[in-house]
Amino acid sequence: MAVSTESLPKESGPKKPSPSRSVARTPLDSHHAWGRVELPNLADVNRRGWGRYRLTVFPPGTNESERRLLALSQSWCGWGFAVALICAVVLADLRSPAALLGLGVVYLAGLVATRALTRRVRSELRVVSAIVTCLAGESRLVGQPELFRRSLERLEQLDAESRAGRLSPVQFEAGWSAVYSALDDRAARGNRVWGTLCL
């Protein structure tokens, strides 16, 4: 499913955030062959005061199995605890030390296993972020908004052309590889060059 970059505010003079600038029409967290996009709900940004745009690009050639393992690794902290809790309730009285120990063992075992299985791919991920803040009635965008916008637009273009049959799998991966290569090592390591852009 396509993710529109229209939800990323354009560069302009400072102004008050508008609740109507919602990303309700776009997935807040969408997965693709080339990676993952996370967008803030701007209604929440207005209420909380901040939100994050995050583009994660997988190394070219990442297969379906690797993508599933990455998704499992990223979500284990949340629902892995629920799985461990259910196991503890089913197997023993939750008040007993053995049940609590078992809960911890199941949770940690899943965490270690998913981390180990995804170590290589995780070390090669490219990540670009931008953070929008709404303070004292003024919105600002910091991080790498233009790099985020350009990269996402190109990846969405590749998706559209592939769906339309205008790109072969080899051409699609070549375009994906070009975007991946353009994201420098600083972005990959999370050592971002911080700047400020008024909304």
Summed up, what is this model?
The chain is of the alpha+beta class and 199 residues long. The protein has 7 helices and 6 strands.
Task: Please characterize this protein's 3D structure.
- It is a single chain.
- By secondary structure, the chain is α+β, with helices and mostly antiparallel strands.
- It is 50% helix and 17% strand.
- The chain has 7 helices and 6 strands.
- It has helices at 42-48, 64-91, 97-117, 119-123, 145-163, 169-182, 185-189, and strands spanning 29-31, 35-38, 50-57, 126-135, 138-143, 196-198.
- Strands 1-2-3-4-5-6 form a 6-stranded antiparallel β-sheet.
- α5 runs antiparallel to α6 (169-182).
- Residues 1-5, 11-27 and 188-199 have low confidence and may be disordered.
Give the SSE map.
Layout: E1 29-31, E2 35-38, H1 42-48, E3 50-57, H2 64-91, H3 97-117, H4 119-123, E4 126-135, E5 138-143, H5 145-163, H6 169-182, H7 185-189, E6 196-198
Antiparallel strand pairs: 1-2, 2-3, 3-4, 4-5, 5-6
Give descriptors for this structure.
single chain; 199 residues; alpha+beta; 6-stranded antiparallel β-sheet; 7 helices; disordered N terminus
Low-confidence stretches: 1-5, 11-27, 188-199
Helix content bin: 40-55%
Main beta sheet, described?
6 strands, antiparallel
Number of helices: 7
